[in-house]
Automatic annotation (TrEMBL):
A Gene Ontology biological process term: phosphorelay signal transduction system
Alphabetized InterPro entries for the sequence: CheY-like_superfamily, NreC/VraR/RcsB-like_REC, Sig_transdc_resp-reg_C-effctor, Sig_transdc_resp-reg_receiver, Tscrpt_reg_LuxR_C, WalR-like
Gene Ontology molecular functions: DNA binding
Alphabetic keyword roster: DNA-binding, Phosphoprotein, Transcription, Transcription regulation
Positions of the Response regulatory domain: 4-120
UniProt keyword Translocase, yes or no: no
PANTHER family registered for this protein in UniProt: TRANSCRIPTIONAL REGULATORY PROTEIN NARL-RELATED (PTHR43214:SF24), TWO-COMPONENT RESPONSE REGULATOR (PTHR43214)
Descriptive protein name: DNA-binding response regulator
Length: 211
């Protein structure tokens, strides 16, 4: 089944470029375009796309507000933030608001497509060259105030995730099955009250587990 994508960016040329890249893939269909944040929220709620690609800076509502609106509630939507800034505090805010990843506008077609597919499958994109550097840059210097409530194996999985490893790479590195890695991550999210693997990575950096 085709992955249904909504594009939200205030620049028509950018939306056109993103549409060309995505619709060149046999498994991705762009179902709508929004020129500002408020329109993005309205269209996403009406069209229920599998993934919304949202610019970080848009009129009326920015990418953080769009993300917060679409990921809240019992039936959240998946949002990937698109930005021109690789160390932008707004991106970090969007991840904390519930975005399942972000890509740079100049990162190239392959990464954009990978981000969409990862978001659709629930295996959010965490790029070692972008996201991990952002999380490391913004992580507080203070150690965690409470003991980490994870098992030794869960901690190993979280540490690998925060360093930018995919589920398959974590499985290979730790000699685990892919299903076991996913199970560990599911338990970690439940223990910590986190919504997705991006939030788990942010938590790991905050608690100095990724160094």
């Amino acid at each position: 089944m085709s992955i249904r994508v909504l594009l939200a960016d205030d620049q028509a040329m950018v939306r056109g470029g993103l549409r060309m890249i995505l619709e060149d893939q046999p498994d991705i269909t762009v179902v709508g375009e929004a020129a500002d944040g408020a329109e993005a929220v309205e269209l996403a709620r009406r069209l229920r796309p599998d993934v919304t690609l949202a610019d970080i800076r848009m009129p009326r509502l920015d990418g953080i507000e769009v993300t917060r609106a679409l990921t809240a509630g019992p039936d959240p939507l998946r949002v990937v933030v698109v930005t021109t800034f690789d160390l932008d505090e707004y991106v970090y805010g969007a991840l904390r608001a519930g975005a399942v990843g972000f890509v740079l506008k100049d990162a190239g077609p392959a990464l954009l497509v990978e981000a969409v597919r990862a978001a659709r499958s629930g295996d959010a994109l965490i790029s070692p060259s972008v996201t991990v550097r952002l999380l490391a840059h913004l992580a507080p210097a203070a150690p965690p105030r409470a003991p980490v409530p994870l098992t030794e194996r869960e901690t190993e999985v979280v540490r690998a995730l925060a360093r930018g490893r995919t589920n398959q790479e974590i499985a290979d590195d730790l000699f685990l099955s892919l299903s076991t890695v996913k199970s560990h991550l599911s338990h970690v999210q439940a223990k910590l009250g986190l919504r997705n693997r991006v939030e788990v990575a942010a938590w790991a950096w905050e608690h100095r587990l990724a160094g």
